[in-house]
Amino acid sequence: MRSWCVTAALVCLLAGAVLAWPAPPQPPCPCAQPEWCNPVKTPPRKEVFVFAVRNDTWKHYDWDKVTTVVMFGFYSEELMCYAHSKGARVVLKGDVKASDVAHLPDPLFRDDWVITQVALMLKQHMDGINIDIEQAIPAGDPARDGLTALVNETTFVFHAINSASQVTFDVAWSPDCIDGRCYDVVNIAKSCDFLFVMSYDERSQITGPCVASANSALETTLGGYQEYLKLGIPADQLVMGVPWYGYDYPCLNLSKDDVCSIKKVPFRGAPCSDAAGRQVDYKDIMRLMRNSSRRWNDTFKSPYFNFQEGGQTHQMWYDDPQSLQYKYGWAVKQGLRGVGMWHGDTLDYTTTDPKVKKQTQEMWDSLPKYHKKS
Question: Where does the UniProt annotation place the signal sequence (predicted)?
Answer without folding.
Answer: 1-20
